[in-house]
Amino acid sequence: METYGLIGYPLGHSFSRKFFTEKFAREGREAQYLNFEIPSIEEFPDVVKNNPELKGVNVTIPYKQKVMQYLGGISKEAKAIGAVNVVKVSKEGLIGYNSDVIGFVDSIRPLLKPHHKKALILGTGGASKAIHYGLTKKLGMETAFVSRNKPNGSPHHGEDVRRTERVFTYEEVTPDTLKEYEVIVNCSPVGMFPHVNECPTLPYEAMSEANLLYDLVYNPEETLFMKKGAGQGATVKNGLEMLHLQALASWEFWGNGE
Q: Which CATH number do you get for residue 139?
């Protein structure tokens, strides 16, 4: 049976299996989507070897960068981002792509107003790579990162991402910062279920209807980050639509099951 799947660790939060299982059922397709919860990326070659019907996998935390060493080819965009979340298994070998950037850009674009010129990216982990690429390369915005600690070097090492970005610590973000950087994208897991009473430490009282808050977290549906922003009149959105869009883009990369 045609097989697709997800590699990561842990996978208790996985959205993809439900999405694709329902998609296959709707379309009457003889296919399955499996979770491959592997505690080490070194087990990835065995996943491919032991599943001869495998056509493609999605890649999630913490392997979006580590998986790249096992690939025979990587798309130009994924290389520039420095992260892969889609792997196509073909006769030519394993090819890596990034659908996160497609999902994010298509999801946030309708919410952007002409005055949205600068964005704060909360977090410097793997998820922030695609978001940074989408904001700068696809949407033409200036960005700055917010990190718990000052990094020793640039938080990104992608081929085309060699600039010195401004990096704030959370303590350094002031009301004036939020007036300058009106778009705020949370790429950290802060506020994700079950930690629903947590949110990134920001001066929320300084927000207004000029701000746009986008949270990659989708469980809960409205995070405390979103709730506090909305309370000040800001536009808010969670990451569920992004997930749907990136999943559909994954299907395109896999060749629509062909």
A: 3.40.50.720
End-of-domain residue from the set 46, 72, 98: 98
- Give the mean pLDDT of 99-108: 97
What amino acid is encoded at 171 in this protein? E
CB-neighbour burial class of residue 82 (10 A; exposed 0-12, middle 13-18, buried 19+):
buried
* Residue where a domain terminates, one of 98, 124, 141: 98
**Does pLDDT of 123 surpass 60?**
yes
Q: Which domain holds residue 8?
A: 2-98
18 is catalytic: no
Tell me: the pLDDT tens digits for 232-245?
A: 999 999 999 999 99
**pLDDT averaged over every residue in the chain:** 93
Catalytic pick from 18, 64, 66, 150? 64
